[in-house]
Amino acid sequence: MTEDATISLLSDATHIACRRMTPQHLNALHASVDQASCLPARPDWGRKATAHLELFAILGDVTGDSDLAGLVSSATGRLHDLAMTVGPAADGIILSSRRRLLRQLTAWDADGAALEMERHLERLHFMERLASSYGPRSTRSSGYGDYRKHAKTGKEDAARRFERPADDLAPATATAADLADLADLADLRAIAAATEQIRRDEALVAERVAAARARGRSWNGIADALGVSRQTARNRFADKLD
């Protein structure tokens, strides 16, 4: 299912569900959002992402159309992949959108609820493209788990860095020009990507130094490899390793 098809499907399902909403359905939705909001985003983002997506299962059931509910369930699988790609940086955006959506559903504002869903999914897809543009195309096979963790954190930091301008777009008034302006961040992305690369490389160097020290290498030998003085090498890494 394409991005546009997913957004259209879930927006339409939200519109239909809002027209069929009962107080019992609203209570279930509020309980779902409250439960998700209470979970920590770290260290188990997958668990919280799954809790965030429970709302779609409820909306699908509320439509009263089993075929449509099945399509919503299928689309939810794609959204889980989307949430995992963006990472915990999306947590605040998701919760803010959920609260706006609940207000519109409570008011039985079907058009407003559908538009909120549409704009929210567009923001998440935009964040996914930003996050993907920062992450390394492949993970270096260094044998060190901390390096891979640092690279993943870099991707999350990149998404978080641009989440605020995306969330600041007013769903009811955002125009194509607004989205175009927001997307025109190539120069800033290049700076951030270079900075993240430096941080990833620094983390890898620190791990290699730690491995060398664990094998009994002296600070003199490590300093020679780094091209710095022994004192500089010790000042840079000793407090983290010894």
Q: What is the typical, i.e. mean, pLDDT? A: 79
Number of helices: 12
Low-pLDDT stretches are: 135-148
Strand content: under 5%
Q: Globular, elongated, flat, extended or rod-shaped: what is the shape? A: elongated
Provide the descriptors you would attach to this structure in a database record:
single chain, about 240 residues, mainly alpha, about 80% helix
What is this structure, in a nutshell?
It is built from 12 helices and no strands. The chain is mostly helical.
How would you portray this structure in words?
With 242 residues, the protein is mainly alpha-helical. Helices cover 79% and strands 0% of the residues. The chain is built from twelve helices and no strands. It has helices at 3-19, 23-38, 45-62, 66-86, 91-106, 110-134, 145-161, 163-167, 176-183, 186-214, 219-226, 230-241. The radius of gyration is 23 Å and the shape is elongated. The model is unreliable at 135-148 (pLDDT under 50).
